[in-house]
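Async update (no meeting this week)

Hi team, since we skipped the sync, here's where things stand on the single-chain job. The sequence we agreed to prioritize is pasted below, unchanged from the tracker. I ran it this morning and attached the output directly underneath so nobody has to dig for it. Comments welcome in thread, and please keep replies under the output.
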Amino acid sequence: MKTLVFGCLCVLYSAVIGQNVLVSSGNYFEGEPSIAINPSNPQHLVAAWMGFQFGQKIVIKSAYSTNGGTTWSAPIFQAHLAPGNSSADVSLGFDHLGNAFMCYIDYDNVGFTQGQVVVRKSTDGGLSWGNAVEVINITDCPNKLCIDRPWMVVDQSGNVPLAPIYVTTMNADQPALITPPYNPYVSVSIDGGQSFMNPRVMDTLNYLAGTSITQPMPTPAIDGTGKFYAVYPSYVVSQSVYPRQVLASSTNHGATITHQIVYQGLNVGVSNSLFKRAGKLIADPAHPGHLAYCFLSEQNDQSDVYFMESTDGGGTWGTMQKVNQDPIGNNRVQDLLWGDFNESGDLVITWRDRRNAPNDGYEQASEIYAATKPYGAASIGPDYPISSQAAAHDTILEGSGNDFMSVVYAGDTCYAVWGDVRSGTLKIYLNKWNAQTQQNSISVISEEYGLLTYPNPTSNILFFKDNFSAPIELRIINAQGAEVFHEMNFTGNFIDVSGYSGTFFIEVYDQGKTIRGHFIRN
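Output:
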């Protein structure tokens, strides 16, 4: 640390990255959902998320709707590519022909001996998914582990019969296994996802991500002409004494990349590592060069949602606009932001909001809020809640794997998905609402029946909310997926867990229903 100022800056440099940590597999959750809408049929939606499957580590689950989210298919999951692997970080997209694409990581999350980012294609609307096509392999970037937090964007312009697909990644959060400098990466398919080019770094001389930001997560977008954009964080003293957000763009599938500065200074990013603080770049499909960059800022208090717009492809950017409209300086935390443009260039931004919580801090009850900005309007419109009630804080929200929500916007209708623990069960909720009237409906895409246990964490005895007077089957599984306890005829309302240490999954089989939960033994 050279000076106190330098130390403060370093906190903000790291604040613009996402919170995914590749090594974690200990939390039980249905989290980090992604949603995509078919450009040929706005009633057709696909959702995917990270979920638990008995006997396996975390898997990717998905479901689809053909009636605008009113009902959803039964979830299916993608098998791991190798025994003992875990999956993470799913994103979805459609091409102009109505084919759906799913991108995620499947990897050894303990030793990092192998792993890859893959894309699967569905030609039947999400009913089934084709073979995994490798995008990036750990071996493609020795000593870099360049497979963390893949984001996929699919070109819907229809300029070519087979849609180009771009996947961006960053270095994993494993400093002992990575040799600096750190880089943002992109890999491109020009044959509709049948194969991908070798990954390339997006940063370059004068626009390097540097050695201070260990995970320079890029956030990608494609405009209506098929032009690719991505924003990534940068800090190199010789480039600027301030942290920067750099815009990379390409019109030839990543063969050449140009760079521009979105922002340099201290007002983008937040310092608290609990906050889900990644930014989001969005490209308007109707107006080439119209971009929106959404981000968190602590310039007023702990964390507010802001955005900036460009109408010339990132050459110049407008002033920062605050999105959440609770009072400035009320010291409430907003995070977990996302956004989308509809086909007319109208903008929606969503986030997790704690303005109505009794106290400050991350560990407070939260709601999901939204605000929209019609194309050409000078400022964003009023914000409003889209979740039907506040969700109490749960410690599971403090770990990795719960770092993103997702929203899509078509016509006058928005669809947002997020993970919610409001009832003590772990569910993926969808809110469908009219951006003009704000009339909405909420449905549940995925539900895991929650086995409520207390205290959690515990030191010796774990109690069940309900007393199992009739014999049930009870299993306890450790974070590596190994069964450590199995009783076919368990009765009672507590169990001694003093012999365990760490995070565990717990399952009860009772009258044909599976009840799941998790606990931490200190």
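Quick observations from my side:
The radius of gyration is 22 Å.
The longest strand covers residues 461-478.
Reply here if anything looks off.
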